[in-house]
């Protein structure tokens, strides 16, 4: 087999259907099914669904539709730019109920352009803005006392890094 690339099986999570071929992905095992050329969406319609995954660091996730059979796979891609919010960093969290519209999205997959669906104008049910930053920040546990990262030697006035044991059990442990 000249010209083939060996596949490292430990990187493969789950096969995902893309058009008529099967590929693999290391994402959250969501399907990205290519749509037929004659597929259309109602640009003014609003749909409801539940967030199944969202990566705040990557800025994207997936929403499972409540109304089944509207799109293949019943799961839709969401990007942070399509979240209607006043938060500094738009984000969603798992099991959050949302309302959204749909739009056709053309993406490049290899040499081909593939037609898929993407969520737009994501809000809370009823059209309220998705402002979850204060709620998420309240859940964080804040450190009570700061732990010095360096200690100063009183004789030589040099700074030494504190040993890792000094951080164990403290409020700001690494």
UniProtKB/TrEMBL annotation:
Domain of life: Eukaryota
Protein's name in the database: CSD domain-containing protein
Organism: Polarella glacialis (Dinoflagellate)
């Amino acid at each position: 087999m000249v010209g083939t690339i060996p596949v490292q099986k430990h990187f493969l999570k789950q096969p995902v259907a893309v058009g008529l071929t099967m590929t693999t992905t290391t994402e959250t095992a969501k399907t990205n099914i290519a749509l037929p050329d004659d597929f259309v969406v109602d640009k003014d319609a609003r749909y409801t669904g539940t967030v199944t995954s969202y990566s705040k660091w990557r800025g994207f996730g997936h929403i499972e539709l409540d109304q089944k059979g509207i799109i293949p796979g019943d799961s839709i891609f969401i990007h942070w730019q399509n979240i209607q919010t006043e938060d500094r960093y738009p984000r969603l969290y798992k099991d959050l109920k949302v309302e959204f519209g749909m739009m056709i999205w053309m993406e490049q997959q290899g040499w081909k352009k593939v037609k898929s669906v993407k969520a737009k104008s994501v809000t809370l049910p009823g059209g309220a803005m998705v402002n979850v930053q204060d709620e998420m920040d309240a859940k964080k546990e804040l450190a009570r006392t700061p732990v010095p990262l360096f200690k100063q030697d009183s004789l030589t006035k040099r700074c030494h890094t504190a040993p890792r044991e000094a951080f164990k059990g403290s409020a700001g442990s690494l």
